[in-house]
Amino acid sequence: MQSLVKYDPSFSLLQVNLGPSEVLVAEAGTMVARSSNVQMDVRMNASAREGFFGKLKAVFIALIRKAVGGDSFFVNHFHGPQGGWVWLAPPMSGAIVEIPLQGRSMLFSAGSYLASAGDVDLKIRFGGLRSLLAKEGAFFVEATGSGTVWVTSYGGVDEVVCNGSYVLDNGHLVGFDSSLNFNIRPAGGGLTGFMASGEGLVCEFQGQGRILMQSRNLGSLVDWLTRMLP
Prior knowledge:
By secondary structure, this protein is an alpha+beta fold. Helices cover about 20% and strands about 45% of the residues. It contains four helices and 17 strands. It has helices at about 50-70, 130-135, 190-195, 220-230; strands spanning about 1-5, 15-20, 25, 30-35, 40-45, 75-80, 85-90, 95-100, 105-110, 115, 120-125, 140-145, 150, 155-170, 175, 180-185, 200-215. The strands form three sheets. Strands 9, 11, 12, 14, 15, 16 and 17 form a seven-stranded antiparallel β-sheet that branches. A six-stranded antiparallel β-sheet has the order 5-6-3-10-13-8, with no helix packed on it. A four-stranded antiparallel β-sheet has the order 1-2-7-4, with no helix packed on it. The longest helix is centred in the N-terminal third of the chain and has 18 residues, at about 50-70. The radius of gyration is 18 Å and the shape is globular.
């Protein structure tokens, strides 16, 4: 499978060429175009390795995600006996980054997952109260395996390595290795700093692993647009 990201980093478009019988899994609503010989199947965003009760749990979680965050709980599977091509684009302007999992597991914040191919197992993971406080939603998308994942962001994406501890503004988190632990705390400066600094809460990571961050904050954009409304 060959891929190319065009118009990066502002208005990225992912072009994927599928070989015979290769499968591309993509978030619902992201397809721009596809060749006529490529078929599309709609499936629920749940781990293929889950049993009946696991899939039932995934349906319940998916309904909650849909009700609280508006995320789709379906993914599209593109494939064809002769192969073909598929073009994908995220809803927001920003970068698309290709991530080889290489046997690792990564967690991605709401709206960051775009597509995947190869040996990648997707499932929804509950992040608890800390993820709600981090404005990332209650659930993460967990990707595990040795295949490839494409993620998107608002703005450009940078990868940093946490070696001990790392502090990141909560609105700039895209994803991180599941081996990392993170907690939510005020940015600093006590109550005055929390209310007046404009920084609010931050994610503090502990351990060793990768962190993906985006250069722009969607929450800040929403706040700015709200002030412009009559």
